[in-house]
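Justification of computing resources. Each target in the renewal requires a structure prediction run like the one illustrated here; the chain below, 462 residues long, is used simply to show the kind of job we budget for.
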Amino acid sequence: MKMQRFLLPISLLILGLLGRMTATAAASEATCYATANGGGRVFSADSAYAVQRAADQTFNTDGIVRIAGYCPGNILINDRTLIFRGGYSPSDWTLSDPKLYPTVLEGVQQLSVVRISAPNDSLTFENLSITGGTAYRGGGIQVNDVVSLTLRDVTLYDNHAVDYGGGLFVAGGNVLIEHSRIYGNHSELYGGGIYSNQTVTLADSTIADNGANELGGGIYNSGSGQLNIENTTLSHNTVYSSVSGGGGIFNRGTLMMKNSTVSGNSAETQSRRILGTGGGGGLWNNGGTASLIHTTFANNRADSNGGYAFGGAVFNNNGGTLSLVRNLFADNVGGGCINLSTIAINTSNADEDGSCEAAIVGELDLPPLADNGGATQTHALDPAHAAVDVMGEVCLSTDQRGVKRKQPTACDVGAFEFVEEIPTAVAITKLSTDSINLTLLSGVALALITLTTSLSWIAKKQ
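Resulting structure tokens:
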């Protein structure tokens, strides 16, 4: 596999000397197809050069580069407003269906798969996967200049950075990530999934199984960064070295997180170091400002192998400021919250060991992460859980899945709102001596109806 990755750039050079690929290349030789005008002219190649050609032809078009197939190579974007949309068939450019027609952009050189290196008004990538990139910064996507970048229904996986941002490196503009998955990326220093010193917003997305050797296994948000997270799950991200912290998130900037789940992340160190290393399995707020609202921290871990470890869920130090409102801390190893700085707001939280100075302290065990509806996995609550129906005051209008709060009259703590099953109501209208009309009004499906000779009925719900 490594031999093939080094041969591909040589093949691209040879093709360049021969005039590269043309729109009439034989279909049997091509794996990548792209068009800038809805199929009027289709570029085909055995590499992402087809995508680059189509992008260069977007003047006087709708600005959409439609892509089909497997596209190994690297893409450089300068000073453009474009939408790169995958999920097409080379024989049909009218409808994007990424499940039926997966589109993959895969890196083949020691470069980011996608590099944005000049000011751009607006760029969008949607309905495709970006993988296999290896770069000094931003193995998958590297943003070096002012841009408004949107990743929608994008899978960013198995990318690597020597320095910062295994999956995504953001040094300019602002980035919106929605309905996307960022997983399996790695950085040798900071930000296994994402490194940012700008504005990044995550919505209805999953950041999972990323790793960094030092800080920010899932996300590293630097001192100038603004990180907004909503309806998103960060799970099983890891930092592991002699000095490490922030398995899920390392924050030095400004963080706003609500209706989200931080689960199974870990910060582990190899030896005894200074105070604070091996901290924040879920979140290390190191001198930043972090506001957490209706977020669940579960099964996170801070472990130092005999050294110092602080805050399985949250570690706050170095002048950092925390605001904690209606969060749930359960089953974390190394303490729920370790605070060595300032907690500005601490309202209606729940934890097991009292370390978060929460209003509710006690047994808070949760089931594993699962698909409980919505765009991301969550930890469900059962009706007897201590976090259910404990808040009568105003809370967020929905939970992480989009389920309405309050259910029925009070809000639950954390990202998940328990909904009790309501019995079915049936309206009965007599039509004759032998029949009745039944109208299902609400609730669960009617399972069994038995009519007697006296027109009595028995309804049993499932």
